[in-house]
Amino acid sequence: MRRLLYSCIFALIASSSVAQELTIRDVFRQMPDSLMPYLSTNNRLDFIDFLDSNMKAEVKNQFDGKSEMTVMSDDSLSIRMNDALRVDMLLLKLDEPLDTISRVLVFVETFKSDSVYGDRSLKYFTPTWQQIKKDIPLNEIQRRRIRSLGLQNILKWDSEIFNES
To answer: Are the C-beta atoms of 146 and 101 separated by less than 8 Å?
Structure first.
């Protein structure tokens, strides 16, 4: 009986520590194809494999163009989908849980436009890709991090234009 009790306690502890180690890589693998029609599931898995092998993470997308994952860390990633679209994702841990949600995925699409800042679309999801329509209780550091994505995209696009000359 004690063995069974100890086994259950150990399994509970092990599963809770695994859940705490959720990374953007895990969430990105499970992303529905409908949210990023440019890329197939295999394209997304290839990005991860290429970066793990220290290779350029570039794939042929569904529209016969090239898409490149330029950055991937434990909690963020950035993909240049084409010359006019960047996608950035942040996996943030909430200081104050929203209902039962303790982590939120920020999904930012930035489109090049005539505006210096481009046009941005910002959506929030649970790590299981359920869209969140409520206000998210982000702290100031998290809000600044999201705002900084726009500036990073401007600088990257300016750099790309400069390097083409």
So the answer is: no
Beta bridge partners of 124: 106
Report which DSSP code applies to 22.
-
Residue 16 maps to a domain: no
pLDDT at 116: 58
Which residue blocks in 21-40 are alpha helix, DSSP H? 24-29
| 65 membership: H or E segment, kind and range | none
Per-residue pLDDT tens over the stretch 8-53: 455 555 554 444 589 999 999 999 999 999 899 999 999 999 999 9
* CA dist., res. 98 & res. 90, Å (int): 17
Q: What is the pLDDT of residues 40-51, one digit of tens each?
A: 999 999 999 999
Please tell me the distance from the alpha carbon of residue 35 to that of residue 27, in angstroms, as a whole number.
Answer: 13
DSSP letter assigned to residue 135: P
* 122-to-33, 71, 110 alpha-carbon distances in Å: 18, 19, 9
Kindly state whether residue 4 falls inside one of the protein's structural domains.
Answer: no
- H or E element in which residue 48 lies: helix 41-52
Asked if residue 118 is part of any domain, the answer here is yes
